[in-house]
Specification:
Number of helices: 14
Distance between the termini: 57 Å
Radius of gyration: 30 Å
Strand content: 25-35%
Number of strands: 41
Largest sheet: 8 strands, mixed
Structural class: alpha+beta
Strand order of the largest sheet: 6-5-9-3-2-12-15-14
Length: 747
Amino acid sequence: MGFDRRFTQARQTWSLSLLLFFISFISTPSPEAGAAGGQAVELLHHRLAVELIPAEHRLIASDRLALKVVGSLSEPVVFSLHPSLRVTRLSERRGQDVRPVPFTVQPSQGGSGPAQEPIQRVAVKLGDVTAGQVVVLEWNYEGPVNDPPREPRHLRFVTPSETAGHIGNEGVYLSGETYWYPAPPRSLATYELQVTTPEGWEAVTHGRQTRRQTSGGVKQTVTAEWAVTAPTEALTLVANRFVKAEREWRDRAGSRIEIATYLFPEDAHLAQEYLEASARYLDAYAELLGPYPFPKFAVVENFFASGLGIPSFTLLGSGVVKRHYVQPFALGHEIVHSWIGNWVLNDVEEGNWVEGLTTYLANYYYDELTGKQEQAREQRRMMLLGYAVYVRPDEDYPVARFRHKTDQRDNAIGYQKAAMVFHQLRREVGEQAFWSGLRRLVTERGGAYATWRDLERIFSAAGGKDLRWFFRQWVEEAGAPSLALVEARVQPAESAGSAGGPFAVTARVVQQGRPYRLRLPVSVTMADGLSQTVDLEMDGPERMLSVTLPARPVGLRLDPDFDLFRRLPRERIPPMLNLFVTDRQRALIVPEGGAETERAPYRELGEQVASREKDMQLVTRETPAPETGSALVLGGPGLNRAAAWAVRGCGDLVRLAPDRFTVEGKTYEGSGMALLVTCRRPDRPEGVVSLFYGLTPQAAAKVARLLFFYGWQSYLVFRDGTIVARGDFPPAADELEVRFEAVKGER
């Protein structure tokens, strides 16, 4: 998933002397931060005090904001603020002297990010200032923030609920997209935050909690103070009725880090599982990437669907918390973001490299790190599958253009292809250079922005070679190599003029379309069961391969373990639901037989599909079956006349009956059984037909709601909604593999 971007006036009692001391400590930031948003000022530090009033959807806030003048300041400084927040007072403090500062509110403009909410622009005219001077502005503002989370508008794609920020009885979520405190664009600052909530509530933000107290009186409140010493591009504040659990973790240098969970009372029993998993991933990634850069790591439960990595904590929707979200691709992914994305920052306008690298380290490499080589291979295969299914050649774009994930094509390019780019980089520079380059990246760019060009510079230095060609080919240009193996043959080594073994294999490898510079793994299997793998260097449209072997070869395969990022032809992918989903011509065939109660779960699913997929053809008794493309058939024998046609392309692998079905020779019976199966279309093999049906309406209903999340296998068998079997049917002949017959004259 992704990483996020971005009091009461009475009780503002923190001393000015402490603030000025802090400013003097941080007033020389990294030059990479630059002037905020191109303005002649640089934001240094926020001292925020905020009171949250969930019952009224309101906040009352003050911000003592320190900024440094870095150039000629002839124009007003423009700050962004949520459009519902009203500035009640704005002053400049110079020593003990406080004077009002004139400001104007500009018309709201469109926001950034998925929410696209309007933004209020506050233009502040500073007095006489000179370059190098630190200016302290004191803001007081208040107002409602009330954008209840909305369900994502995707049928088959997991995205967070959509909101620009919300304060309510169900919870508080204020992020960079909320603009809940004043800041110029693209500012990196440190923070102190005092937050007051109703009794029974806990607030969580970046950094470390330094103080917490409960007030007396009729209306009790809780006030917590937080220190955020790592430069942050946007501060996120959440609050709810949390139960906190914590433990201490120490890195190899002996630094003490707080690991915590903030869970809802009904999920508090899961705290130990999340604490132990967090410590396990921190151990692994601190070894790879260097010391953990924050004073805490917390798992925080959210009142709406989310999976966000935020500096020093992750914000997980309640639904995923309940589902034990502790896998490497889940909690491990969010912990890797602590280094990659939340410490080394991503300049999205220059391209998002963070999600690809995080995906590589968490979703993929943790399997390799823990010795699960078959799972690691399967992850590489799935990355290539995702690209093949969701990125057609005419819809491709370069990795360098990826900014945010909004659909599966973005996911396939910005996460999966980009992850495989780092796998290619690792193979190109070698193990030692790759891992030392990653540690150098974290050390050099921690607390600052990094771009693809920074990565090119760092890994070129680590590997001792110019990688301009590599980043141009894999990052700046769209596409992927398409390979074919032709004219493969085996003969005695003497007749081939080779030495070193009794047999020689020769083959011609062809790149179809634009040629790439490649390091192509080639594996030859021999009759004695052993295999030999070599890397074939290619930089043109074709290359001859010649390998001498000590035993008779029986087969040759290009890239058997999916180490090379390449395009898999759609027609040679095992049939699966996702091929139907991404076909440009799709038809939905709904049931018309049987009783209404039997058709009900399919009718509801069909209505959901038709309402979200406007370009899909609906096939009924009166309309003919589609002549081209792919189809989804809902309902089995006795309900849908197309059920038998749907599985004809699977031959003997699938047999259907109203009270049972057989897949790959195994028969399934019983009221709880359901089947999702996809076959190549019998009359047009370039398309697929997916069939979904349950042996009872209840069995179908338990699967129907999540049907489109099961799109990667040829078949899945469910019992009472739980998967009990899955698998892939073999694709058509593979152009990257050849089997050899016995060689004439073989010894």
